[in-house]
C-alpha cells in the first residue's frame, strides 16, 4: 500500500511532478537491458484482486453532466449527447466554460454511490477523474480547469477524496479513468507543443496516485483522431506505463495506456460488447452502459433489464473476463434511480442461494464447451452451470466435455430438487427434476474431479542463447537460463545491457513438462518474429516480421513427460515482445511457469 501525500507534501509533489520530464523528452537514449514485463498478469499477486472481483462500477461524471445530455443551440435547435456534448454539439469553448462555472454537484453522495455498488455486488469502482473535455474532478494544482477552481461547487469538498474514503470503508477498490485526449489543453493538438501537455498530464497522474492511492488506472482517448488532433503514440504509452509503474508497482493499468493492443498494460478493454470466448494473451474487462449513454442524459430512458445485465455478468465470468457497468450521475451528482434499482436487482440475484459463487473468484469453465442454454464458470472443483433456458419437464441439459473429468455430485442452488447427471455421447446430460428457481438464471452446481494433475515440476527455465544480430548467426553473445518467456522489451529495452534495442535474436531450448495429459493451446505474443517447435515439430511459424500479434497452436502433451521445446525469436527494429503462454481444459491461461521448463 502506498503512503498518502497530504497538505504541504502534496503541494511539493505537484511542484516536483510538474517538472517531471517523461523519458523521451529527456533525450532519445535507449535503456538497453530493460524488460517492461514486470510479471504475468494472469498469475501475479498484483492482479489477483482484479481476477477475483469480476464486477465493477464505472462512473462517468464531469462538467458535461451539468448539461444532462441536452444543449439548446443559439438558433433554438436542441442537440443531444452526453460526455461528448461539447464536441458533438459544437459548443464554443468559452460557452462551455461558462456553463461549467454553474456546475454544482452538491448532492454527490459518495457513501450512497458506494452502497449502490455494494448492493449490486460490485467489488471495485472506476470514476472519470478527467474525460476528453479536460476538466479535472479533483483539486489539481496543474491548472484551474477543474471542479475546485471552475464551478459553483463547495470549495472545501473533494469528491474523489470522499469516494476514496467511502470505498476504503466499504472494502471496495477505487480506480480512476483518465483521458489522454484533451479537448481543452491548448498544447495538446500540436506535436511541437504536445510535450508541454504531456508534462502536465504526468503531473496530474502523480497527484492522483500520491493523493488517492488508486488500485487501477483506466486510460482512454488513446486512438488516432482529430478535432483536436491526437498525437499519442505507442512509444508515448511505453513511457507513460513505465513512469506509472515506477510511481506504484501495484497499479493495475488497462491497455488504452498505449494503443489498446495485447502488449499494452495489463488487460484488454472491449466496450459495449462481450467477447464470445476467453481472450488470448491478456486479461480483459468489458465496459458497458446501463442505458445508451456513459454520461448522464435525461432523455435516455432505454435501460437494460436486470436479467440482461446479470446474464452479461455470467457470460463475462464464464470467459474469464470482468464486467465494468456504468452509471452517470446527473448535474447534482445523483445516480439515476433506474440505475440504482437495476444494480440492486443484480445484487439480489448474486446474494440468493449462493449464486454469486458462479461469479466471484470464478473463471472460464474450461472443462466443457459453452452450451447454448447458459454459461458455465469454474471455481476450484466446482462447475457452475448458470441455466438461462431451463429444460421442459423431463428434459435435460447437455454439456460437451473438452477433457476427461468426473462429475461427483450435482445440485440446484436454492432448490432441493433431485438432479441426475449421466454420461451421454460427447459429454454429460444434466436432468433436473424440478422447475427453474428464477427467471434470470438457475445455477446447477456440479462438483467435479478434473482428473490427475501432477505436482509442480522442479524446472528452472529454458536455456537461452542471445545473438547480437537478427539472424541467430554465429556464436551467441550471451548464454544463460531464462526462467520464463515473458518479455516486453518494447522500443527502448533489450534482453541485456550489452544487447542493443534493435537487431537481436534469441533461441530458447530445453523441455516443457505439462501437469495434465490433455491438449494444450500454446500462445505466443510476439513482435517482430517468432516460431516454436515441440518434440521437433514446428507448431507456430510466425517468421514474417510483424507488429505485436498473437499466434496459437494446439499440441497434445502428457503429464510428467518432458517434451522438447525450441523457440526462436528475432527483433529487427521498433518494438520487441515475446511471451509464451499455455492453457488447456484443466489449466487456465498463464505464462508457462518456470517450474515446468527445463534447460534440457
Ligand atoms: O470516448 C469515450 C467515451 O466517452 C466513453 O468514456 C467510453 C467508455 O469506455 N470510452 C471512449 C469511447 O471508446
Automatic annotation (TrEMBL):
E.C. numbers = 3.2.1.51
Where in this chain does the record put each PA14 domain?
457-596
Regarding protein family, the annotation reads: Belongs to the glycosyl hydrolase 29 family.
Q: GO terms for biological process?
A: fucose metabolic process; glycoside catabolic process
Species in which this protein is naturally found: Streptomyces venezuelae
Q: What does this protein do?
A: Alpha-L-fucosidase is responsible for hydrolyzing the alpha-1,6-linked fucose joined to the reducing-end N-acetylglucosamine of the carbohydrate moieties of glycoproteins.
GO CC aspect terms: lysosome
The keyword Lipoprotein appears for this protein: no
Name of protein: alpha-L-fucosidase
Keywords from the named record: Glycosidase, Hydrolase, Signal
Q: Name the domain of life this protein comes from.
A: Bacteria
Q: Which first-to-last residue range defines the signal peptide?
A: 1-23
One Pfam family this sequence matches: Alpha_L_fucos
Q: Which PROSITE patterns match?
A: PA14
InterPro entries, A to Z: FUC_metazoa-typ, GH, Glyco_hydro_29, Glyco_hydro_29_N, Glyco_hydro_b, PA14/GLEYA, PA14_dom
Q: Which GO terms describe its molecular function?
A: alpha-L-fucosidase activity
Amino acid at each position: 500500500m502506498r503512503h498518502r501525500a497530504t497538505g504541504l507534501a502534496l503541494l511539493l509533489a505537484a511542484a516536483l511532478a510538474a517538472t517531471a520530464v517523461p523519458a523521451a523528452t529527456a533525450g532519445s537514449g535507449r535503456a538497453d537491458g530493460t524488460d517492461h514485463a514486470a510479471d504475468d498478469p494472469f498469475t501475479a499477486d498484483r492482479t489477483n484482486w482484479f481476477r477475483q472481483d469480476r464486477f465493477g462500477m464505472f462512473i462517468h461524471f464531469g462538467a458535461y453532466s451539468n448539461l444532462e445530455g441536452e444543449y439548446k443551440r443559439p438558433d433554438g435547435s436542441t442537440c443531444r449527447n452526453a460526455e461528448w456534448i461539447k464536441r458533438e454539439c459544437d459548443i464554443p469553448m468559452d460557452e462551455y466554460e461558462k456553463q461549467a462555472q454553474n456546475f454544482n454537484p452538491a448532492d454527490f453522495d459518495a457513501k450512497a454511490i458506494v452502497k449502490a455498488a455494494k448492493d449490486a455486488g460490485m467489488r471495485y469502482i472506476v470514476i472519470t477523474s478527467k474525460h476528453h473535455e479536460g476538466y479535472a474532478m479533483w483539486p489539481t494544482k496543474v491548472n484551474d480547469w477543474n471542479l475546485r477552481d471552475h464551478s459553483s461547487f463547495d470549495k472545501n469538498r473533494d469528491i474523489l477524496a470522499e469516494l476514496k474514503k467511502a470505498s476504503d470503508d466499504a472494502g471496495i477498490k477505487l480506480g480512476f479513468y483518465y483521458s489522454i485526449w484533451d479537448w481543452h489543453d491548448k498544447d495538446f493538438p500540436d506535436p511541437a507543443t504536445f510535450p508541454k501537455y504531456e508534462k502536465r498530464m504526468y503531473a496530474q497522474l502523480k497527484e492522483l496516485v500520491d493523493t488517492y492511492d488508486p488500485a487501477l488506472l483506466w486510460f482512454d482517448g488513446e486512438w488516432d483522431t482529430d478535432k483536436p488532433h491526437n498525437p499519442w503514440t505507442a512509444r508515448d504509452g511505453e513511457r507513460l506505463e513505465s513512469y506509472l509503474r515506477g510511481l506504484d508497482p501495484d497499479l493495475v493499468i488497462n491497455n488504452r495506456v498505449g494503443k489498446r493492443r495485447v502488449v499494452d498494460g495489463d488487460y484488454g478493454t472491449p466496450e459495449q460488447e462481450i467477447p464470445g470466448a476467453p481472450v488470448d494473451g491478456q486479461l480483459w474487462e468489458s465496459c458497458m452502459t446501463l442505458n445508451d449513454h456513459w454520461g448522464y442524459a435525461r432523455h435516455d430512458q432505454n435501460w437494460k433489464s436486470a436479467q440482461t445485465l446479470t446474464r452479461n455478468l455470467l457470460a463475462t465470468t464464464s470467459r474469464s473476463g470482468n464486467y465494468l457497468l456504468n452509471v452517470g450521475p446527473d448535474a447534482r451528482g445523483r445516480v439515476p434511480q433506474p440505475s440504482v434499482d437495476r444494480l440492486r436487482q443484480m445484487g439480489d440475484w448474486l446474494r440468493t442461494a449462493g449464486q454469486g459463487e458462479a461469479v466471484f473468484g470464478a473463471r472460464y469453465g474450461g472443462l466443457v464447451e459453452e452450451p447454448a442454454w447458459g454459461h458455465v464458470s469454474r471455481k476450484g472443483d466446482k462447475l457452475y452451470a448458470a441455466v438461462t433456458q431451463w429444460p421442459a419437464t423431463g428434459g435435460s441439459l447437455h454439456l460437451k466435455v473438452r477433457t476427461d473429468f468426473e462429475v461427483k455430485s450435482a445440485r440446484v442452488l436454492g432448490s432441493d430438487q433431485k438432479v441426475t447427471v449421466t454420461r451421454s455421447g460427447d459429454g454429460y446430460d444434466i436432468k433436473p427434476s424440478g422447475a427453474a428457481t428464477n427467471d434470470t438464471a438457475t445455477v446447477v452446481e456440479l462438483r467435479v474431479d478434473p482428473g490427475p494433475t501432477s505436482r509442480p515440476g522442479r524446472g528452472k527455465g529454458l536455456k537461452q542463447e542471445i545473438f547480437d544480430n537478427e539472424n541467430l548467426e554465429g556464436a551467441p553473445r550471451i548464454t544463460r537460463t531464462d526462467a520464463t518467456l515473458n518479455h516486453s522489451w518494447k522500443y527502448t529495452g533489450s534482453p541485456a545491457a550489452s544487447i542493443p534495442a534493435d537487431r537481436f535474436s534469441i533461441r530458447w531450448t530445453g523441455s516443457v513438462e505439462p501437469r495434465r495429459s490433455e491438449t494444450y493451446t500454446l500462445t505466443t505474443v510476439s513482435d517482430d518474429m517468432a516460431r516454436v517447435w515441440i518434440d521437433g515439430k514446428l507448431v507456430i511459424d510466425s517468421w514474417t516480421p510483424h507488429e505485436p500479434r498473437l499466434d496459437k497452436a494446439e499440441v497434445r502433451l502428457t503429464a510428467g513427460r518432458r517434451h522438447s521445446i525450441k523457440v526462436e525469436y528475432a527483433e529487427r527494429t521498433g518494438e520487441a515482445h515475446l511471451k509464451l503462454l499455455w492453457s488447456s481444459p484443466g489449466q487456465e491461461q498463464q505464462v508457462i511457469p518456470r517450474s515446468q521448463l527445463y534447460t534440457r
